[in-house]
Amino acid sequence: MEHLFGFGLGCITLLKQARLLLQPLVYLLYEGFTIDLQWLKESQKRLKWTDDTMLTFIISHYKVGGKSVTEALQRLTREQVEDFVKEINKRLEKQQSLF
Predict the structure, then answer these.
(1) What confidence tens digit (pLDDT) does each residue in 42-73 have?
(2) Strands 33-36 and 27-30: what pairing?
(3) Domains identified in the chain, total number
(4) Can you tell me the distance from the alpha carbon of 68 to that of 30, in angstroms, rounded to the nearest whole number?
(5) Which of 18, 21, 56, 80 is most buried by a 10 A CB count?
């Protein structure tokens, strides 16, 4: 079967790979616990943190490595992820109370 719905098998494989690569950009999943990356980006903006600031916070606070925020977050345990979300929310609440 050379073509399927007008696409070569190589193209379908690329589409599947692209879907798998893009999927982690929406949510990071930790044993039934997710981080909405849209929420994370919005929180980062409200805190006025750059990607480097967020990455540095994760690496220094949780003692993990990573070259990007998502890569570092993927190395956290579920408990660390829960703590991270609480920490970000706490900082957002604190910032909001200042205004």
Answers:
(1) 999 999 999 999 999 999 999 999 999 988 99
(2) antiparallel
(3) 1
(4) 18
(5) 80
